[in-house]
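User: quick one - fold this with NA7 bound?
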Amino acid sequence: MSEAEPLDAVVIGAGFAGLYMVYRLREQGFSVHGFERADGVGGTWYWNRYPGARCDSEIMYYSFSFLPDLEQEWPLTERYPAQPEILRYLETVASLLDLRKEFTFGAEVTAIEYDEAAGLWTLRTVDRKTGAGGTATARYVVTAVGCLSTANRPRFPGAGAFAGASLHTGDWPREPVDFTGKRVAVIGTGSSGIQAIPVIAAQAAHLTVFQRTAQFSVPAENGPLNEDMVALWRANYPEWRRRARHSPTGFPYVPSINLAADASEAERNRTYEAAWGTGGFTFLFGSFADIVVDEAANKTAADFVRGKIDEIVCDPDTAEMLKPRDFPIGTKRLPLDTHYYETFNRPNVTLVDLKRTPIEEITATGIRTSAGQHDLDMIVYATGYDALTGPLEALGIRGRGGLPLKDAWREGPRTYLGLAMPGFPNLFTITGPGSPSVLSNMPVSIEQHVEWIGDCLSVARERGTDVIEATEAAASAWTDHVQEVASVTLHPKAASWYMGANIPGKPRLFLPYIGGVGLYRDHCAAVAASGYEGFTMSGPHREDDGDGNRSADGRAA
Ligand code: NA7
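Assistant: Sure. C-alpha cells for the protein plus NA7:
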C-alpha cells in the first residue's frame, strides 16, 4: 500500500466483518486496505482466549455462507465451537482468500479525520510494538471493529497495587494461563464469567466469585454432534442459511408462537423443562413468545430458573445469592453454561455477593470487601465491555467541521440503519448501534451489512458520485424507531449493557435494533431499491461553496 495514494476504502478490523468486507471490496475492484490492532486475524476470537470461551451460536451457522466448499469441508465437531476452533476457521478463511496481504496487523487506529475539501478520510495509526505512527487516506472508511471489543475496566481503588496477575477476559494473553495451585478471583458473572468460572474452578486451588448482579443462565447442553445431524446440515445448508437470513435473530429455527399467558402451569413447566433439557436459546425463543414482552409471562420463566437454582445448588444461602431478582429474564443477554450453578457445590469455590459486601479496595495481596480480606494470587476481570459505541468512539473519528463522533453521540448514538451517520460521509459501520448486531447470530448480520455496503459503493461508482451521507431526518427517524421497538419489550427495565447501563455516565438508550434480522434485511433492501432513500449521494466531489452548502451536482437520492 502506498501511503501517498488515496485508497478507495479502508477497513478497520480483521474479524468476521473485516475479512469479508476487504474480500468483497477487493473482488468489486476497489483499492482497499485493512488495519487491525491484533497481530493476526480473528477479532473477538483473537482476544477472547479465556478458559471456557465458546460461541453461543451453534457451529453449523456460526460461519460464512459465501464459502460453500469450506462449509462442506469444515469439521462440525461440538455443538458450540470453542474459541480456538473459531480462530482456526477465520485463519483458514484468511489463507483461502489470500487476505492477510491486504492488512497491516498490530496497527491501532488512533484518529480518523474527514477532510471536506478533499472529500477524503485520513487515518492515523500507531504500531503497537514500536510506537511508530502511520497514515493512510481513503475515500471510504468501513469500521469492522466489533460490538464487544472495548473492555470495561472498572476503577477499583488500589487495583494497580495488586502484586499477583490481573487478567481481563476480553484481553487474554496468548500464552496459556495456569491456575494450578492458585487462589483465583473472578469479578463478574455475565456470559464470560459464567463460561470461565467452571473451568477455572476445576483447576485452581480456590476460586472466589465476586458477583454484583445474579444472572439467569441456562444449560448450553454442549457436546459432540452426531453424524446424522452433520449429514443433514451438509445436505441442506442453502435452505438453513436462507431461513436464518429471514428469521428474527439470525438462527434458522422457527420461534415459538405459543404464549405463556395462555398455557396452564403444568404446560408451562413441561415446556420449560423440555427447553432446559434441549439447551441453548431454545429456553428463550423456543418456549413462549411472550417472555420478553409480558411481565407475568416473564415471571413464569424466571421462577422456573430460580427453581432450578434451588434444585442444583446445595447450600441454601448460596442458592439465594445466585437467584436473579433485579431484572426480567432475557433482558440482559442470557448466558449459556456448562455446569455453572453446579460449580458452587465445589468445596474450593466461594461466592461473594457484592450487593451485601461491596469491594472496598484491591490490595497488594487480594480483594478487601466490607466483610474482610480475600487473599489471592490472580484476579480475572470478567467485567464486560463498553458495548457498541465504545469501539467506535475509541477510533478518534472526526466528521464534517471536525466534529468528534463522541460529541455527536453525547446524548446517545444516532445512526441510520446502524450503518451510517449524518455528518460522517462515506463512513460505514458494520453492526453499528441501531442494527440487530448483538441481538443476532453475528455472521448472518455481518454478511448482510458487508453485502449492502459493497453494493452501495458499486452503485455510487456506477453513478459517478462519491459522497454518500445519511440525512439528519433519516437518522433521527431510525433512532426513534429503534427506541420505539425496544419499548414494546421489557428490555428497558434492565440495567444492561444493551442499555449502556454498565458504563458510568453512558447515555441510557437501547443500543441494538430489536425489530428482527429478517425485517431489518428487508428494510435495508428496500432502501437500496429506492435509490438509497435517506442518504444523499453527491459528487463527484467538489468543495463546499463557502456558505456551508455542499456540492449537489450528483443525484440526491
Ligand atoms: P457482561 O455481560 O457485561 O458481564 C459483566 C459482569 O461484570 C456483570 O456480572 C457485571 O455486573 C460485572 N461488573 C461490571 N462492572 C463491575 C464492577 N464495577 N463491580 C463488580 N462487578 C462488575 O460481560 P461479559 O463479558 O460477561 O459478556 C459480554 C457479552 O459477550 C455477552 O453478553 C455475549 O454477547 C458475549 P452487573 O450485571 O453489571 O451488575
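One thing worth noting: The first strand starts at residue 7 and ends at 12.
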